[in-house]
DNA sequence: ATTCATAATTATGGATGCAGTATTATATGG
DNA sequence: CCATATAATACTGCATCCATAATTATGAAT
């Protein structure tokens, strides 16, 4: 192995991957709404590329569940039903619970300080009623736990599930009182980690996720 | 909607899907071994098709984790490390545990009779030391539970994980004594379902999967 | 003989072109 | 005026072709 052949290729990702990422952003931003048809040649022309890499990108997105490919009929952005949410959320709750459990087992003093730092941001953004800041810190808290848990497969599944859930633009944190409740739940989770009670931490994280689902359901019923 | 436009298209799957399925079989049969390079034009020539649908199939397999795509360097069958197995198995144990729990909650008398019928096959094939028969009935038992649980997302994750595990040809059931132990565990799971103790059923299924992992690990150490 | 540089070969990534099927528009009959 | 049949259009799916990067083979120099 010499300097000329970088095995850890920092090479730019393939074109189809770049396109897939662009499309993901468009889907998450609801620039491409659920149910919308993806016009291959229009998109290809848009990006100034041919249909070949674009179609490969669509295959990837289909595997992630973000779009559905109807043979001979084209590609459409996935529409999540309430039933789908009811299927995905409990699974995600279990998986996030497992992360919390595993992380509690493996947490070091360095990790712990980092978690506390992020939690402080949660406290402060919540006090300032800064929803976006809370959302961001919340995301980083869960990411930090995944890193501590150290199970790449588990982390992958959770990331995939989160991508799916992003298809619904609804955000439970915008529900009145939800931030306060979410913060309280986080405090309890952190407390369980502090005393190294892995089962309790797992259980509380699990319930935390389901509590988020319930909030989302309330949001759905008020929004109609 | 008229007879001319079958919305439930029974149309044959796209070529890239057929190819993906063919390749999956080859990978599972270890005709294509972990680490092996997939020669695009050779395979395309083999199937008598062009490289385009073949490459689309490879994207799908990559998303499933069965192959890895190295930019500008080609496509290789995924090699699972022991670490990967240690990551995947606990997750699968959790998921299968959730299936058992959910199925216990929803099982009907009809379901129950079906489960018992399959379990009887387990008993008989085990008594006859029919490993392949036991393997098959075992598969159908788990599938039946997934159907009863009725969570499509959960079922999908488990199927994906099982595909990954098929990359290792090792089969814990071939380990001496494993069938007897597996059968005993199944009996306990069934008993928990019978008394509708969902938590116990989930716990026992979880442990059953981990017991399978342990057997696999023993197999790995004896095989070297 | 071994190592490095250079040339030839080969494979991947992407673009273009074409056939077949879905969809839409048009026309004809009731 | 509406429904059905037919024609026109448009898009998907696949094949072929080309450019570029990677690998291998060849040759020269130490």
Task: Please characterize this protein's 3D structure.
The structure is a homodimer of 224-residue chains. Chain A has 224 residues and is mostly helical. Chain A has two domains: 15-77, Arc Repressor Mutant, subunit A (Orthogonal Bundle); 82-222, Four Helix Bundle (Hemerythrin (Met), subunit A), CATH 1.20.120. Chain A has helices spanning 15-28, 40-47, 51-64, 82-106, 109-127, 131-149, 152-165, 178-194, 198-222, and strands at residues 37-38, 67-70, 74-77. Chain A has a three-stranded antiparallel β-sheet with strand order 1-3-2. The interface between A and B is medium-sized, with 31 and 31 residues. The structure holds a DNA duplex (30 and 30 nucleotides).
Tell me the name of the CATH class of the largest domain in chain A: Mainly Alpha
Shape by Cα distribution of chain A: globular
Mean pLDDT of chain A: 92
Biggest β-sheet strands, sense, barrel of chain A? 3 strands, antiparallel
Q: In order across it, which strands form the biggest sheet of chain A?
A: 1-3-2
Task: Name the chain pair whose interface involves the most residues.
Answer: A-B, 31 and 31 residues
Using the CA coordinates, give the radius of gyration of chain A.
Answer: 20 Å
Whole-number count of domains of chain A: 2
Q: What proportion of the residues of chain A is helical, as a percent range?
A: 55-70%
Structural class of chain A: mainly alpha
Question: What is the count of helical runs of chain A?
Answer: 9
Order of helices and strands of chain A: HEHHEEHHHHHH
Return the CATH architecture of the largest domain in chain A.
Answer: Up-down Bundle
Oligomer designation: homodimer
In total, the number of strands of chain A is: 3
Strand content of chain A: under 5%
Q: Which residues of chain A sit in consecutive blocks of at least 5 with pLDDT less than 50? A: 1-10
Distance between the termini of chain A: 62 Å
CATH H-level name of the largest domain in chain A... which superfamily?
A: GntR ligand-binding domain-like
């Amino acid at each position: 192995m010499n300097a000329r052949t970088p095995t850890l290729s920092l090479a730019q990702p393939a074109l189809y991957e770049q396109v897939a990422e662009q499309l993901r952003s468009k889907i998450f931003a609801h620039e491409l709404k659920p149910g919308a048809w993806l016009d291959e040649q229009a998109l290809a022309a848009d990006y100034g590329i041919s249909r070949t890499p674009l179609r490969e990108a669509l295959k990837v997105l289909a595997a992630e569940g973000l779009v559905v490919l109807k043979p001979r009929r084209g590609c459409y952005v996935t529409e999540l039903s309430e039933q789908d949410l009811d299927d995905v959320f409990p699974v995600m709750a279990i998986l996030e619970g497992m992360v919390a459990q595993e992380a509690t087992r493996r947490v070091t003093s360095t990790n712990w300080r980092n978690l506390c730092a992020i939690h402080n941001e949660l406290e402060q953004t919540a006090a300032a009623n800064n929803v976006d800041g809370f959302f961001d810190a919340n995301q980083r808290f869960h990411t930090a736990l995944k890193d501590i848990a150290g199970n790449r497969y588990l982390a992958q599944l959770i990331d995939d599930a989160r991508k799916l859930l992003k298809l619904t633009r609804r955000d439970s944190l915008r529900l009145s009182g939800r931030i306060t409740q979410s913060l309280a739940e986080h405090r309890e989770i952190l407390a369980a980690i502090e005393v190294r009670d892995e089962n309790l931490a797992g259980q509380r994280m699990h319930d935390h996720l389901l509590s988020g689902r319930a909030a989302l359901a309330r949001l759905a019923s008020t929004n109609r």
